[in-house]
Design a protein that fits this description.
heterodimer; A: MetI-like fold; 13 helices; B: alpha/beta; four-stranded antiparallel beta sheet; 12 strands; 34% helix
Chain lengths: 321, 330
């Protein structure tokens, strides 16, 4: 077959695959939405009280409760909520009265940037450290690399965040302590957020690479007269990437939610801090929308990982076609 | 001898195990002449494969190390050259085929790329020329639709096809010596015959020297000019194929040849050699084969025999053929 036809077939296949996977997301999201909706209503505390304040009379309270539809059976509430979502309406915040969509706009962008920056540096540095550790197994670079990795895993993000603020913002005054106004505001939070993942990627890269370096095709590559500078990145690393990409993808999903703590430490205007604030205020519509969004992100990340797989491992590509 | 291309002399190779150096190869010597196929036989663990890895110096990632002896390629001792020089020899002058075609190719790289790598490095061809050469090589090793195979991945090919690709890679830079480490062991019998035919044809065409490592005496009889028999990291016998099968000298060789079933022979049980291969970390004193040898005398257990030229071009290390000793005892 002509190579161009092959490529076209490949693209068509990937598109069909994505479409199928998106369809499969629907039942998952439906179940997730029901669970979220139901559980949020189990949270103790009265949102109406929070809206009207402590001085309101019980009449006012019951009036607003009726107005917000909180007296309806939970099933009816769910149905009307879903109706809204399908029309692109996530409801209004109980706290601010603003549409939830509007509140998300900038914060969503901030959070996505923060997670992306974190994962990108963690991925690059993690792979470099892991590769050096594997190549110089049990020697000095390995020891330094794995010491870094163990520290990265053991140190909690919020603590690292506080230390970074203390050192770079308070003492040196180089970087701002919080906010998200310029790229400088992203540096410290993404270090705090990415450290643990960097460590995990480094360790996975090391063990996966060590396994690959023992395989027959690496011996073949060396027997061909290739230099190590080619054998390691071209032949070994690519084979090790499948497992590394998997855990990176999983971590990425966790990062989207895990940024809650780091965002709070850096008073970062993102989704994580919004979640904390909304829970404190029992802002049902915002919490629901956030949790739903986190679920969608998680599923989408998984989809991306699966697609990446097939690029890294040609075997998966041909089996599925 | 005339035109010796590769000469291994008293080669010793050590491995590290539990902080202890263990000598796996102890004084392996043989030579290969131009255009000759030399068989290296012996049972598993006798050091056949390690001999080939020592010649290529493929020890990276293991604790293996050449601790003595010389390996002369033409006139150069390649145990002394730097890693950089060694890389120019690997794949260019001495190439190698391995036992497991299923795992010896990189699973995530197209066949074409894997084949073009040595061509670009050693022959200095640009991409276009390297590609032409690669397609030619695939055709040469009998791969149909070689143009398409260039863009396929190893898992899309059968074991026999993969071994053909390995042969194409090894032959791509026209090496002087081809080391084939059990090239057909992992293949089924009909494919084995095809691969052996192919290797012999290519060897004749290029007048290339070949070191064929195998435990299959049938393959030896069919392919080789001369044979070196190894036991416990040592060479015990060296002879031409004809002599070796006609009248094996060393008791171990006799046992090996005796254990091959013959057509027309009526026997319930095949011959076997009693006992096991000795553990390299706990070698017996004297002749390493003595504990399993039916002809062993007290002296065999005490002193290790040395290599003797028993007849012209026939070498054997066994006290049975040591005239000095037979004079004393007789």
């Amino acid at each position: 077959m002509h190579p161009k036809i092959l490529i076209l077939k490949g693209v068509a296949f990937v598109l069909r695959y994505i479409f199928k996977r998106v369809l499969e997301m629907i039942p998952t999201l439906l179940i997730v939405s029901i669970i979220i909706f139901y559980f949020i209503h189990l949270i103790p505390g009265d949102p109406v009280r929070l809206v009207v304040g402590p001085d309101a009379t019980s009449e006012e309270v019951s009036m607003i409760r009726e107005e917000m539809g909180l007296n309806d059976p939970i099933f009816i509430q769910y149905m009307s909520y879903m109706q809204g979502i399908l029309q692109g309406d996530l409801g209004k915040s109980l706290k601010t009265g603003l549409p939830v969509m509007e509140m998300f706009e900038n914060r969503f962008k901030n959070s996505i940037y923060l997670t992306l920056f974190s994962i990108i540096w963690a991925f690059i540095i993690g792979i470099i450290i892991g590769t050096f550790s594997a190549v110089f197994k049990n020697k000095l670079p390995d020891n330094i690399g794995m010491l870094t990795a163990v520290s990265g895993i053991s140190v909690p993000g919020f603590w690292l965040g506080l230390i970074l603020i203390q050192f770079f913002s308070v003492q040196l005054g180089w970087l701002p302590t919080g906010g998200a106004d310029s790229w400088k505001h992203f540096i410290l939070p993404s270090i705090a957020l990415g450290a643990g993942i960097m460590a995990m990627i480094a360790r996975f890269t090391r063990s996966s690479l060590l396994e690959t370096l023992g395989s027959d095709f690496i011996r073949t590559a060396r027997a061909k007269g290739l230099r190590e500078m080619i054998v390691i990145p071209k032949h070994a690393l690519r084979n090790s990437m499948v497992s590394v990409v998997t855990i990176t993808g999983l971590q990425f999903g966790f990062l989207l939610g895990g940024s809650v703590v780091v965002e709070t430490v850096f008073s970062f205007p993102g989704m994580g801090r919004l979640l904390i604030d909304s829970i404190a205020f029992r802002d049902y519509p915002v919490i629901q929308a956030l949790l739903l969004l986190f679920s969608i992100q998680f599923i989408v990340v998984n989809l991306i990982v699966d697609i990446l797989y097939s690029f890294l491992n040609p075997k998966i590509r041909t089996i599925s076609s | 001898m005339e035109d010796i291309i590769l000469k291994v002399e008293q080669l010793q190779t050590d491995f590290q195990k539990d902080n202890q150096r263990i000598r796996i190869l102890n004084g392996v010597s043989f030579h290969i002449s131009k255009g000759e196929i030399l068989g290296l036989v012996g049972e598993s663990g006798c050091g056949k494969s390690l001999t080939s890895l020592s010649i290529m110096r493929l020890f990276k990632g293991t604790s293996g190390e050449i601790s003595g002896g010389n390996i002369f390629f033409r006139d150069e001792d390649i145990t002394k050259v730097t890693e950089n020089q060694m890389r120019k020899i690997r794949g260019k002058q001495i190439a190698m085929i391995f036992q497991e075609p299923m795992t010896s190719l990189n699973p995530v790289m197209k066949i074409g790329e894997q084949l073009m790598e040595p061509i670009r490095i050693h022959l200095g061809y640009n991409n276009k020329r390297a590609k032409q050469h690669a397609v030619q090589m695939l055709t040469k090793v009998g791969i149909p639709r070689s143009n398409e195979i260039m863009n396929e991945f190893p898992h899309q090919l059968s074991g026999g096809m993969r071994q053909r690709v390995m042969i194409a890679i090894a032959m791509s830079c026209n090496p002087d010596v081809l080391i084939a480490d059990e090239p057909t062991t992992a293949l089924d019998v009909t494919i084995q015959a095809q691969i052996l035919d192919l290797m012999r044809k290519l060897q004749k065409e290029e007048n290339m020297s070949m070191l064929l490592i195998t435990h299959d005496l049938g393959v030896v009889a069919e392919m080789c000019d001369r044979v070196v028999v190894m036991y416990a990291g040592r060479v015990v016998e060296e002879a031409s194929v004809h002599d070796l099968f006609q009248s094996p000298l060393h008791p171990y060789t006799r046992g090996l040849i005796g254990s091959v079933p013959k057509i027309g022979q009526k026997k319930d049980r095949l011959e076997s050699i009693a006992g096991r291969v000795p553990d390299p970390s706990n070698m017996p004193k004297g002749c390493k084969f003595a504990p399993r040898c039916s002809d062993a005398t007290a002296e065999c257990h005490e002193k290790e025999p040395s290599m003797l030229e028993v007849e012209k071009n026939r070498y054997c290390s066994c006290w049975l053929y040591d005239k000095g000793r037979s004079l004393i005892s007789g």
